[in-house]
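Appendix B. One record, verbatim.
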Amino acid sequence: MPFRSGVFFRAAAIGLALFASACATTAPVPPIERPDPSGPPAVVGPEPTPGPAPSAGLQPVDSLPGFSTEDHRAVLNAWRATCRAARAEAVRRLCEEARALGDVSQSEARAFLVERFRAERIEGEGLLTGYFAPEYPARRAPDAEFSAPVRPRPSDLTLVDGALLSPDQAGRRVAARIVDGRPVPYPVRAEIEAAAEGAPPLAWMRPEDLFFMQIQGSGYLTFEDGRRLRAAYAADNGRPFVGIARPMIERGILNRDEASGDRIRSWLAANRGPAADALMDENPRYVFFKPEADDGAHPAGAAGLALPAGRAVAVDPTRHAYGELFWIDGTAGNLDGAFPTYRRGVVALDTGGAIRGPVRADLYIGRGDVAGREAGRIRHRLTMWRLVPAA
């Protein structure tokens, strides 16, 4: 997940730790903007007068689960900072109205959300996962520990209509290479890693770190001299993501309740070499990178805008539009150390290879290890609402 042109293209979200990979440890970390039920309510001042009765199929936003304890100012600020990605005319008009408000209080933000939006339930239940921007050590030259090359986009990789490779890929731009004048699927991970030719690597990493960075689709590298760069998504080989937790469970390497990202990564590090390589090769997907300056900010998503930590989600762009405001209700997390619920307003700003379907969201948590620990524990049952402009 999703990152294209700076987008986190996570083939599977970090939160899919049970059947994918993730960077997490076992010590719980407070979630970003987690409401404190013992503290003061998020609403400051009197409750605003309820808005007009909703249209058929819509409901008031203040009836959504967790809305009363939401940080209304935070969600409004996140949306109006990124809503220019929206294309629908009604959303764009409301975006301009929100951006013209200036600084707002909690009660003013709540009133705006209640009066100017209605909630449209997206039918069914799905999956909420989490992702983050990882930070890793790297080297300019390889050694026994830092042996995995961070490869730039190959010169022979081209994008073609997926229908030329497989009927089920129709309508998508898919990586390929041209052989005898015809496009053929680009090689899988194991074949790419076995090839010695190509442009010089951008850097060298520990194999397990590179594997995890490819899942996230982007990352930040720190070299021996303290210099830093961002390894941004440049391309992928067009192959589907296959998580390695399931085969690790099936082979008795890990128990089902141990399949967190931290446990997976620790095993890969402890078995660095042929055993770990063979397991990582179970995932045929491979991501290539390009160097960018690290300005200390959060990375951009597929919408081309910086991702607000805890307030941006990756969605299926064939089902939803970038810049839209959603309400997520994530419950029943099934990973060890997970926080029980994620109920908040979020903006659709990104996508990812495993983010498919109408009720599917990947929550961007932030940069670094703290964000990684939280993201690695998000695998929650998801209910979603689209917040649409009130008539």
